[in-house]
Specification:
alpha/beta, 6-stranded mixed beta sheet, 4-stranded antiparallel beta sheet, globular
Length: 219
C-alpha cells in the first residue's frame, strides 16, 4: 500500500532532516510511528499524504510512483486516505455533524444514506450532544474527537493520525485506540503517530521509530 525507498528530505539548501527512509505499509496493517519531539513524525506523515515531495528517493502509494505522478491524479489518491491532523482543521462555518459528514458529501453520497451512521459515530466518540455545535464552542478534546470521526467516517484504505489522543484523557484515549483497531479489522491500514509510550505498550503492534532523521522498525 505504501513503499518508501531511500527517501531523503531537506528544506531548501539546509541539511537533510530525513535520511534514507525505507519501509512499507501492507494493506490492513496497524503500526505506531513514534520518536522524540522534532524527530520528523509529522514530516513523514506529510510525505505519505503527498503534501510534501521528497528531495530524493522513491515513494509508491497504492501501486503508483507518486514522485512522478501528474498533479490532477493526486486528489484521487488522497481520497483513499483519512487524516487526523494535530490542528484538527475543522471548518468553522459547519456544525460537528456537517464536518464529520463532509468526506461523504465530497464523494457525492445522498445524506439519507449516511445520516444515521454519522450520528452513531458521533455518539460513539462522545459527541452525541454536540451534533449541531460549531467548532468555536467545542473544547480542544471535543475538536479532536470530531476530527477523528471525520477521518473514520468514509472507512478509508489508509488512515494517518497525528497524535490523535493528545487532547483526551487516558480512558478516552484507550477507547479511541479500540475504535482504530476495529476500523483496522474492517480492512483499513492505520499509522498512528504518538510519543505516548504507555499507550503503545497496551497494544501489540508494529513500531516505526524515528531518531535523528533515521527510521528503525520493530515488528
Amino acid at each position: 500500500m505504501v513503499r518508501f525507498e531511500n527517501v531523503g528530505l531537506r528544506y531548501g539548501m539546509g541539511p537533510e532532516v530525513l535520511h534514507d527512509i525505507s519501509f512499507s505499509i501492507e494493506p490492513q496493517s496497524f503500526q505506531f510511528l513514534t520518536g522524540p519531539s522534532g524527530a520528523g513524525k509529522t514530516t513523514l506523515l506529510r510525505l505519505i499524504l503527498l503534501s510534501l515531495k521528497p528531495t530524493r528517493g522513491l515513494i509508491h502509494l497504492f501501486g503508483t510512483d507518486v514522485t512522478r505522478i501528474e498533479a490532477d491524479k493526486l486528489t484521487d489518491l488522497r481520497r483513499r486516505m483519512g487524516v487526523v491532523f494535530q490542528d484538527f482543521r475543522l471548518l468553522d462555518h459547519l456544525t460537528t455533524y456537517e464536518n464529520v459528514a463532509l468526506p461523504l458529501r465530497v464523494q457525492g453520497k445522498e445524506e439519507a444514506s449516511y445520516r444515521a451512521e454519522v450520528k452513531e459515530l458521533l455518539h460513539w466518540v462522545g459527541l452525541g450532544d454536540h451534533v449541531n455545535a460549531r467548532p468555536s464552542v467545542l473544547s480542544g478534546g471535543e475538536k479532536q474527537r470530531a476530527a477523528i470521526a471525520r477521518a473514520l467516517i468514509a472507512q478509508p484504505d489508509l488512515l494517518l493520525a497525528d497524535e490523535p489522543t493528545g487532547n483526551v484523557d487516558p480512558s478516552l484515549a484507550r477507547r479511541l485506540l479500540r475504535l482504530f483497531m476495529e476500523l483496522n479489522r474492517s480492512g483499513t491500514a492505520i499509522v498512528i503517530a504518538t510519543h505516548d509510550i504507555g499507550l503503545m505498550d497496551q497494544f501489540d503492534s508494529r513500531r516505526l521509530v524515528l531518531s535523528e532523521g533515521r527510521l528503525h522498525i520493530y515488528d
